[in-house]
Design brief:
The protein has about 290 residues and is an alpha/beta fold. The chain contains 9 helices and 11 strands.
Length: about 290
């Protein structure tokens, strides 16, 4: 983990060293990712990084079971859901915060989650958000994920939910008009453009009329972080979706950046827009709520 560097330039025997900014760090990371991708080492490198984070977390956390009475997923599974999730505290806090955000957006739309018959956590991982629906009594809670080990863990440790495996490509393993809500946080963000459209189309299929689709994207906030090249930023500004490392779909390496107009007018064009929260997830991801027409 890098230490914070003072904004002031530091004197050294070789002169002064300017502060290291987030864009500069990202530029270095991007260069390393490009190199490992060309050498076909990107996926092994990511898996190795996840294992290191998991080992560190295991040394710091031995509690296993949390205050809600549910088992905590092993660190190696949490790390696969995202590097920060290897930390048990962050995993629980972020899941609770996002469950509260989903609840809040539905209430604003006039459809409290307690009144829904069936909801689907698409890309549920090892239950980061799913575990927080345990108090729901009248709502059937389902999840799905492409990682069979996470699916197995959820079914063994989250008895109030039914979790299924899905493939990288649609369809969902569910019949049409099955759900009043499908939500997906940090899922669309890791798919190439063709799979994004295919999956959103299948969300339309499995949602009941007037059902809700909620998902997150990487939006305009990321332009300020200068994580894209000049050409990629130009494409984004022209209303195009930008996908990095699309040859690694469904992994944290593949990253998609969506202009809001593209989401509304192309990706979710068959839905009615309900609400939009820019940079609402961790102050970074944009959150959209759409509704299937009656």
């Amino acid at each position: 983990m890098l230490r914070d560097i003072s904004p002031a330039e530091r004197p050294t025997p070789f002169g002064t060293v300017p502060p290291v900014t987030e864009p500069a760090l990202w530029g270095l990371r991007r260069s390393l990712l490009d190199l490992t991708d060309k050498l076909h080492l990107a996926r092994p490198a990511i898996r190795a990084y996840e294992l290191v984070l998991a080992a560190k977390s295991d040394l710091l956390d031995r509690s296993g079971r949390e205050g809600d009475g549910l088992q905590l997923p092993p660190a190696r599974l949490r790390a696969q859901a995202g590097p920060r999730h290897a930390d048990a505290g962050y995993f629980l806090r972020s899941g609770r915060r996002h469950a509260e955000l989903i609840r809040e957006l539905l209430e604003e739309a006039g459809s409290p989650i307690e009144e829904l018959e069936a909801i689907l956590d698409w890309g549920c991982g090892c239950g980061r958000i799913l575990r927080h629906w345990k108090p729901l009594r009248q709502t059937r809670v389902l999840g799905c994920d492409i990682n069979p080990k996470m699916v197995e863990w959820c079914n063994e440790n989250l008895p109030f939910a039914d979790v299924d495996a899905n493939d990288l490509s649609p369809p969902f393993p569910y019949s049409g008009s099955s759900f009043e809500l499908v939500y997906a946080l940090s899922v669309i963000t890791h798919l190439p453009e063709d799979l994004q459209h295919a999956w959103i189309g299948d969300c339309f299929r499995v949602l009941k009329p007037k059902g809700y689709l909620l998902f997150s994207t990487l939006g305009e906030h990321y332009l300020s972080l200068k994580r894209l090249t000049e050409g990629e930023r130009k494409a984004f500004s022209n209303g195009e979706v930008v996908v990095l490392y699309e040859d690694s779909p469904g992994t944290s390496l593949c990253s998609a950046y969506h202009p809001p107009a593209y989401v509304r007018e192309k990706l979710a064009a068959d839905f009615d827009a309900v609400s939009f929260r820019p940079a609402a997830e961790d102050g970074r991801h944009d959150i959209y709520l759409f509704q299937k027409p009656a």
